[in-house]
Amino acid sequence: MITIQNVGAVHYQGVEGEATYNLGSGFNAYGNYSLNSYTSAIPILNAPQNTAALGMLYEHNKTNASLIAKEIGSRWGGQDVNGNYVHFGSYTTVNLATGYNFGSLGWAKDAKLEFQLDDLFNRTDSIAYAGSTQGNNALYWTLPGRMFSLNLSAGF
């Protein structure tokens, strides 16, 4: 989501760490965390206080898979009709992906089949303020819910 906002002077800072640990037999544990803060006269929209990810990765021979939980921390999401800033809590989504590399299939080189399932638990949390109707009813952006994709790719 893109937010255009003139806030004047802002001092933004943060720290981020990431690690992957090899568990053996093709498995890796993965983690990431960031802590962010800013100093500004008004809230910075859609700037989370923290983000985090935790997951398991697998790769062996021609097969790969991942299961990763991603958290987006609390943040400000816009102004309501009264000019009050709307605050949103954190949310977490879990994504699953798997793939298989067929290699060369005659005319197709490096053929791959990949499946991805985003938002495994079908979260539809409100994540940002989208404005209001003429009747001053609040509108919100939400997570889209569970989605999946199937991708077949190959070089020639």
From TrEMBL:
Keywords: Cell outer membrane, Ion transport, Iron, Iron transport, Membrane, Receptor, Signal, TonB box, Transmembrane, Transport. It is found in: Cell outer membrane. It is a multi-pass membrane protein. Gene3D superfamilies: TonB-dependent receptor, beta-barrel domain (2.40.170.20). One of its GO terms (cellular component) is cell outer membrane. The keyword Signal applies. SUPFAM superfamilies: Porins. PROSITE patterns: TONB_DEPENDENT_REC_3. InterPro entries: Beta-barrel_TonB, Beta-barrel_TonB_sf, TonB-dep_rcpt-like. PANTHER family: FERRICHROME IRON RECEPTOR-RELATED, FERRICHROME OUTER MEMBRANE TRANSPORTER_PHAGE RECEPTOR. This is TonB-dependent outer membrane receptor. The lineage of its organism: unclassified sequences, metagenomes, ecological metagenomes.
